[in-house]
Amino acid sequence: MFDNLRTALQKKGVSVKQYARVLGIGETAVRHKLAGETDFIYDEVVKTRTLLPEYSADYLFAENAAKEAETVCVTQ
Question: Of 4, 12, 46, 76, whose CB neighbour count within 10 A is largest?
Fold first, then answer.
């Protein structure tokens, strides 16, 4: 669900295991958060921004970024 966040982590070479350590939670919990099954808490957003300061929180935590980019506006 959080495609931008996944891509940013991959570009920086950060594994799910490493990201989990940064957040202070388990790998399974991170996978659930990345899939949109559970929410990120404020502290996790802050830690993510510290890890990835080159990106805005709005960009990293945009949901369904790929779907939004493919949406076409049709007027009648």
Answer: 4
Cβ neighbours for 51, distance < 8 A, ≥ 6 positions apart: 12, 14, 19, 22
Note the pLDDT of residue 63: 82
pLDDT of residue 60: 95
Question: What is the distance between the alpha carbons of residues 3 and 72, in angstroms, rounded to a whole number?
Answer: 19
pTM value > 0.70: yes
Cα Rg of the chain (Å, integer):
14
